[in-house]
């Protein structure tokens, strides 16, 4: 005969707030909330959960803005400090963030890694590709209002036009102290001076061949990777260097003239 004693339900252990392990950066708020629910569904009250998540965030002491990772906070703090730790090896211009330096370096190398899948046109920045795609979707023409009076080439920014015009200008104010050769841009002079110094700071990680300029290294690396970022536009052929693509396109134009 069963006794009248009601068994006491075993009490489940209460979930403890999750603490990041040593060396681990805190996850974003949404993923932290989901992780807490998976660890102890129904056990952790919402106010306690939110308090734990807030306690893990990284706050800027200058403006109070919060970040999910300490690296993001450190990157943000350069806005207040004015610190620019990332320097361009070509022209010595400095930047607060490494991503800004990477974008700037493409002005020296001519690299355009972002390709439009519809027309094959390439861009140095993803934002320029998105702007181009929006213009194509709405039927509007690209806004490149600054036109070179010498060759007709157009630019989206006036500073880009001014930089381009030095190609046509006879003015070359930057002179090499070793040989007297003059250049229109200071960055070109810096590149030239490395030739005197024998400074080949850019080395291929595959064959260890050194180069004076990062642009030469990038072009060389395509011989290893097989990358061909420059399409013909007239046919399906692609090339690993822009000059090769331009030379190939002229064969189409000559064929059209003979026809």
From TrEMBL:
PROSITE patterns: ZINC_FINGER_C2H2_1 (PS00028), ZINC_FINGER_C2H2_2 (PS50157). Its main location: nucleus. One of its GO terms (molecular function) is DNA-binding transcription factor activity, RNA polymerase II-specific. The keyword Zinc applies. It is found in: Nucleus. Residues 1-38 are annotated as: Disordered. Residues 58-85, 86-113, 114-142, 146-173, 174-201, 202-229, 230-252 form the C2H2-type domain. InterPro entries: Znf_C2H2_sf, Znf_C2H2_type. It comes from the Eukaryota. Keywords: DNA-binding, Metal-binding, Nucleus, Repeat, Transcription, Transcription regulation, Zinc, Zinc-finger. GO terms for cellular component: nucleus. Pfam families: zf-C2H2. PANTHER family: KRUEPPEL-LIKE TRANSCRIPTION FACTOR (PTHR23235), KRUPPEL-LIKE FACTOR 15 (PTHR23235:SF120). Belongs to the krueppel C2H2-type zinc-finger protein family. This is C2H2-type domain-containing protein. It comes from Sphenodon punctatus (Tuatara).
């Amino acid at each position: 005969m069963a006794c009248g004693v009601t068994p006491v339900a075993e009490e489940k252990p209460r979930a403890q707030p999750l603490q990041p392990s040593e060396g681990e950066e805190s996850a974003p708020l949404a993923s932290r909330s989901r992780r807490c629910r998976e660890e102890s569904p129904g056990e952790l009250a919402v106010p306690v959960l939110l308090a734990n998540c807030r306690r893990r965030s990284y706050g800027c002491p200058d403006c109070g803005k919060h970040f999910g990772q300490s690296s993001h906070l450190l990157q943000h703090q350069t806005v207040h400090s004015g610190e620019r730790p990332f320097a361009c090896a070509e022209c010595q211009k400095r930047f607060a963030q490494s991503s800004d330096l990477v974008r700037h370096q493409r002005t020296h190398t001519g690299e355009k890694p972002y390709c439009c899948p519809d027309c094959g046109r390439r861009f140095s920045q993803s934002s320029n590709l998105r702007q181009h795609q929006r213009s194509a979707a709405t039927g509007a023409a690209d806004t490149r209002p600054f036109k070179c009076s010498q060759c007709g080439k157009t630019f989206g920014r006036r500073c880009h036009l001014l930089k381009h015009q030095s190609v046509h200008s006879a003015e070359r104010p930057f002179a090499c102290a070793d040989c007297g050769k003059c250049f229109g841009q200071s960055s070109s002079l810096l590149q030239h001076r490395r030739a005197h110094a024998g400074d080949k700071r850019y080395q291929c990680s595959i064959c260890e061949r050194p180069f004076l300029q990062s642009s030469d290294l990038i072009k060389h690396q395509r011989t290893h990777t097989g990358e061909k970022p420059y399409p013909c536009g007239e046919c399906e052929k692609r090339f690993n260097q822009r000059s090769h693509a331009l030379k190939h396109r002229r064969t189409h134009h000559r064929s059209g003239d003979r026809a």
